[in-house]
Amino acid sequence: MIVGIHIYPKGSDDSFVKKYAEILEFNNIKYVWLDINDISFWEKIRYVNYFIYRWIQWDDHHQIAKSILPVIEHYYNIKCLPDLKSCWHYDDKIREYYLMKAFDFPIIKSWVFYDKRSALDWTEKEMRFPVVFKLKGGAGSEGVLRVDSLKDAKKLVSKMFGSGFISSKLDFKGSLVNTYCKRIRKYVGNCLKRTKGQFINFNWQRHKNYILFQEFMPNNEFDTRVTIIGKRAFCFRRFNRKNDFRSSGSGILDYDQSAIDLNFITLAFKISTQIGFQTMAYDFLYDEEKNPVFCEISYTYVDKAVYNCPGFWDNELKFHPGHFWPQYFNLVDLLEKSSLLQPN
């Protein structure tokens, strides 16, 4: 048994993938580091039984993952983490919405347009304020704005079907007015990094020629993050930023399991089982009738936030106390090795 682990692109934090290596070492399972920039990568990949590539929302990560994962999984027949079922829609809210609508799961209602005239017609005739504008990619509420007026909605339509946005240059406190403040701060910060010889990792692809609006869910002071790994659910609540409607990226977390709505867990298990996700994090809210809905999904997440959970729920809603790294259970499932041990 040999596990291949792809390194992170230069300059990215690799503490997440290092934990895979630590767990494998602790269990005396052989692993090798792989890098697509190595000219012998495709020769080395033939000798591994499993392939792990944890990629995140940066555009250079997307570029690599979408080029190599389909080939490795489908043509080399190597079991991957993540597999394509779990990640082909990652960091693309439009793909997520289309997928969930196909199964009729309760994802928050969205409106997607690829034509300026159609977008403006809907905006002028049918839009009900407030609505939420989102770029299809971005984490931690980046690229998410609340739209309260027809004037701002039309500006966004014109921008998206004009020069467009780069996600890392949009969104500062959720305000169109302050977007330019973030651009200036980002530019100055990057200039300072360059003078120090530091690596600059940011999004470079431009979002344009589409627009995504999402129904606004009022009266939600927090969302509930449910992370499914196989038959385990790790749960916590994330409270909104001060004077803001967004909770993702706030860092205000609550791990009280008695406050978790078990309906969220049941629904998350149902979705993951039916579609066949290896692992998936769901961001749940309530609609105006207090029914569970979710706005986004993600195959990857902050590992420490999961580890800090006081335990996990199984698919029969029985709670199991303890602290577990998600990498540990990901490996248990990938290798089909229930005897795997987690290092202290």
Written account of the structure:
The model is unreliable at 171-175 (pLDDT under 50). This protein has 11 helices and 17 strands. Strands 11, 12, 13, 14, 15, 16 and 17 form a 7-stranded antiparallel beta sheet that branches. It has a 4-stranded parallel beta sheet with strand order 2-1-3-4, with helices on both faces. The protein has 3 domains: 2-81, 3-Layer(aba) Sandwich (Rossmann fold); 109-215, Dna Ligase, domain 1 (2-Layer Sandwich), CATH 3.30.1490; 222-329, ATP-grasp fold, B domain (D-amino Acid Aminotransferase, Chain A, domain 1). The chain is an alpha+beta fold and 344 residues long. It is globular and about 60 Å long. α6 packs antiparallel against α7 (150-160). The chain starts with a strand and ends in a 9-residue tail after the last helix.
What topology emerges from the helices and strands here?
Blueprint: E1 2-6, H1 15-26, E2 30-34, H2 41-44, E3 50-52, H3 59-74, E4 79-81, H4 84-87, H5 93-103, E5 110-113, H6 116-125, E6 131-134, E7 144-147, H7 150-160, E8 165-166, H8 179-195, E9 206-207, E10 211-215, E11 222-229, E12 232-239, E13 253-254, H9 262-275, E14 279-286, E15 292-298, H10 303-307, E16 311-314, E17 319-321, H11 326-335
Parallel strand pairs: 1-2, 1-3, 3-4
Antiparallel strand pairs: 5-10, 6-7, 6-10, 8-9, 11-12, 11-14, 12-13, 12-16, 14-15, 16-17
Helix pairs in contact: 6-7
